[in-house]
């Protein structure tokens, strides 16, 4: 959402949430997918989408979306989760070569 105002982003996210709901996301029938933020999409956008889905279905569980702000049931470590996952994979990969991450530089 680069170069967009907060109100433009908010309008887009609300419309997007309504479309997600129409195709079946956000329903509590056992087929619930888990939308999440990605590059350039953070707590603000996910919070709006989740809030809109909550309006459309009050029974939607907080766990239905990742990347929410803490005030909406988000996780303390969510912003770091991808980075920790990358480091974990790197460490496990280095083990295959009898190497460790110690002293390595990322370029």
Give structural notes.
The protein is mainly alpha-helical and 107 residues long. It is 46% helix and 0% strand. The protein contains three helices and no strands. The protein has helices at residues 6-22, 43-56, 78-95. Helix 1 packs across helix 2.
Number of helices in the DSSP assignment: 3
Count of β-strands: 0
Order of helices and strands: HHH
Radius of gyration: 18 Å
**End-to-end distance:** 27 Å
Compute the average pLDDT. 82
Provide the β-strand percentage band: under 5%
Secondary-structure-derived class: mainly alpha
The rough form would be described as elongated
* Biggest β-sheet description: none
Q: Could you state the oligomeric state of the chains shown?
A: single chain
- The percent range for helix content is 40-55%
Task: List the uncertain runs.
Answer: none
């Amino acid at each position: 959402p680069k170069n967009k105002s907060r109100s433009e982003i908010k309008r887009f996210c609300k419309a997007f949430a309504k479309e997600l709901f129409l195709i079946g996301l956000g329903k509590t029938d056992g087929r619930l997918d888990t939308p999440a933020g990605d590059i350039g999409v953070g707590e603000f956008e996910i919070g709006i989408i989740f809030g809109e889905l909550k309006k459309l279905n009050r029974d939607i569980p907080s766990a239905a979306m990742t990347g929410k702000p803490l005030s909406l049931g988000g996780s303390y470590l969510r912003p770091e989760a991808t980075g920790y996952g990358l480091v974990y994979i790197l460490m496990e990969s280095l083990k295959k070569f009898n190497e460790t991450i110690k002293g390595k530089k990322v370029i």
